[in-house]
Amino acid sequence: MDNCIFCKIISGEIPSQKLYEDDKILAFRDTSPQAPVHFLVVPKEHISGADDITAENCAAIGYIFAKIPQIMRGQGITNGYRIVNNCGEDGGQSVAHIHFHCLAGRGLGWPPG
Ligand code: 5GP
Ligand code: ZN
User: Fold this and answer.
1) Which atom of ligand 1 is nearest to the CA of 96?
2) DSSP letter at 107?
């Protein structure tokens, strides 16, 4: 997708600190971490946001949730974590390529602001 920063990270045009990659997904550190461990997981296929998940493209989303525990364990996380998806303007989404924030390493407040 032209002008999508996460597609550019996936292609390597924009550098990132990768934690996990395979043919379907990429996990990389957030440049503005909100917790000691904060990475994003994206499908390599461009899906703009949670509103655009369909029966045809949803397999990658389930696959992401199957991989996150493995990545967390690889980061040494044993005391829990949070997975966040921001969708649309009110949801606080700033990058229109679906991504899951994975946060850990400190107690996380609830509810979010
Ligand atoms: P959103 O606000 O859309 O839920 O989250 C977008 C996230 O992407 C933010 O946490 C922001 O720090 C992160 N981000 C934005 N641009 C870049 C980038 O070029 N590289 C990386 N690694 N993260 C980015
Ligand atoms: Zn994209």
Assistant:
1) 3
2) -
